[in-house]
Design goal:
mainly alpha
């Protein structure tokens, strides 16, 4: 039952991880960076699978006990709800789900990103809470479903990140294109831009869409506005096809460097 209940969560998580929508850019970036910090940039499927499963079981047990197994009855008791009635149970479920979502608020993070994360986690909490209710109050069902989802998310992020790094290394080594624009950039900047280009090329067609460029510069910490991004992208798109090849991306980097984009101090050196 737990495996069945985890399926919609896994499917939704996989769809989000593959989405190019700017709504999910920072969430996907944060997940990839977490996987890289935990497991490094080399493929280690067995180790990552075991570690992810352990971490998933810990977080699944802790959060489901806190927010569902103990949290829902406690909420009902504290605010005078009849937990045995459908209306009281529904109210406790809703409050628990919103509280679960708010628990993922990142202090110091951008409000937009926090709202997206909290809304997503509130929906996740509502789904897991519903499985708790349907299972007759058996917290093991949502706990294991939660664990499977967390383990899959970390494993999938590791596989995707490592695969993309391997692709970027291979393509960067094979590609040493030069263009007149590179004369305005330091050699190290050109090399970093080349690596970033292939890391951002998630479709692996040696062309970057504006969504891929957006994800790349957001991971570098750039707070460039959507309007400025679109303007610089258009100026860099030499053939106007809505995609940047490597030389176009060199132009993009040169233009980006000339603008007063707000790069986080600890990350700005990655590019220049």
């Amino acid at each position: 039952l737990s495996a069945i209940c985890s399926a919609p969560l896994v499917a939704a998580g996989y769809a989000i991880s593959r989405s190019e929508s700017r709504t999910w850019v920072d969430i996907n970036s944060a997940t990839s960076q977490l996987a890289l910090r935990l497991f490094g940039g080399k493929k280690a499927l067995a180790t990552v699978a075991v570690t992810s499963s352990i971490l998933g079981l810990i977080t699944g047990a802790a959060e489901e006990l806190s927010f569902r197994g103990l949290g829902m009855p406690l909420i009902a008791d504290r605010i005078g709800l009849d937990f045995s009635s459908p209306s009281g149970l529904a109210a406790a479920l809703l409050i628990s789900s919103v509280t679960f979502g708010l628990g993922h608020w990142s202090w110091g993070g951008e409000n937009r990103d926090n709202f997206v994360t909290c809304a997503l986690q509130s929906c996740t909490g509502l789904y897991l809470g519903t499985t708790f209710v349907v299972a007759g109050g058996n917290v093991v069902v949502p706990g294991v479903a939660h664990a499977i989802y967390d383990a899959f998310t970390l494993l999938e992020a590791h596989v995707s990140a490592v695969s993309q790094i391997e692709y970027a290394n291979e393509k960067s080594a094979a590609s040493r294109l030069q263009d007149a624009v590179t004369s305005t950039l330091d050699e190290a900047v050109v090399e970093n831009a080349r690596n970033i280009f292939f890391l951002a090329d998630t479709t692996r067609d040696t062309r970057l869409s504006i969504a891929e460029v957006r994800a790349a510069i957001r991971q570098l910490g750039s707070l460039i506005s959507e309007e400025d991004l679109a303007d610089i992208f258009a100026q860099s798109d030499s053939d106007g096809d809505g995609l940047l090849d490597l030389n176009d991306f060199f132009i993009f980097v040169a233009l980006l460097k000339d603008t007063k984009t707000d790069l986080l101090p600890e990350q700005s050196s990655i590019l220049w």
